[in-house]
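We now fix the convention by which a protein and its fold are recorded. These numbers are not coordinates but entries in a learned vocabulary of local backbone shapes. A record is reproduced here so that you can trace the correspondence yourselves:
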Amino acid sequence: MSFPLPRAAVVRWQLFLATAAWIATVPNFPVFHQFLGSSAAGRGLGAAVFVFGGWMFVLTITLLLLVALGVLFWGRAARWLCAAVLVAASVVSYFTIFLGAHFDRAMVLNLLQTHPAEALELLNARLVAWVLVAGLVPAAAVMRLRLRPSQAPAALAAMAVLVTVPALATAGIVYAKYSAYASAARNRDITFATVAPANLLAASIHHVASQQAAHTARAERGKDAHQGYAIPKPRLLVFVLGETARAANHGLNGYLRDTTPRMKAAKGYYFPDTESCGTATAISVPCIFSGFSRHEFSLLRGLANETLIDVVLRSGARVVWRDNDSGCKGVCDKADFVDITGANDPRFCNEPGNCFDEMLLDGLEAKVRAESRDTLVVLHLKGSHGPAYYKRYPPAF
């Protein structure tokens, strides 16, 4: 004979508070650990109060998130909301805790635009174990709870108190040691983008706004672009794009291991004083072709203006973009675009959807020889992208 386990009964504000407390303590452990590691924390009881203030900061943000989203989830649906937020927080926090990544708008773009084969390379036993312990188990516990109904006026009053009390307590603690918290936030890189999963929601909202901007007409750039003089033969320029390659790992830049022997043999020029707008393809590629500096560039500004590709096309030249990564991120919309990321050619692909960059050259020579116009060819590489670098080159290399 089996006996069903009892199901605890809670009211809405208790459910939200318990959920927020777990998220502030486990998935967001790195945040208040950063407060503890700050030189501004001090020692003894003062350090404990300082770290508690950091924990209250995360708790308050999470409560605000739950209460705001709770407007859409009444009755028993509130359990589904809390369960979803718990799982989302565990997934986002994994990348912060184990990979040191901040889940900002660039990471949302990566999530939405990264090729599935590349994304699956991140899946491992550690990720599954963390999400199970930090997200799925507490989510299952939440779903077992019985939610007691309450009258609307009482529920609204409870929600107001639930947000107001922690917010006032956090404000009081932070105000008392404002300079210390400001120093910790600045020196330990503690920002809104480090609090999961509120950072995911904020980044997603920004992404939606960016997508709306993408549908507007872009401001023209280089309206006077033209071919300067006639030549007997069309010119060919090949631009090899490996936007995630790190200067620190280039032999040409002094790296101890010679990672660029053929480039060195070609006796080309190396430009060390360059800056990337970001470490993600979705940020760095639009920036490279935007004409803006790292300090001037933003995704919204990039979407509002034409790119270098548009200017080259306006001059009468042809642009061919061959892609082995995750697309041109809106840069090459008017160019001849060739996507090989889904290819399954046994000559170049060691597994479906994962092909060596050499495939970008297949058939290219015949294509450009038949061209009568000046041509810009962009070859977008996958080889400089992680995490599975060992899959990016054949055994011969």
Summary: The two ends are 65 Å apart (CA to CA). The chain has a mean pLDDT of 83. The CA atoms of residues 141 and 349 lie 45 Å apart. The longest helix spans residues 44-70.
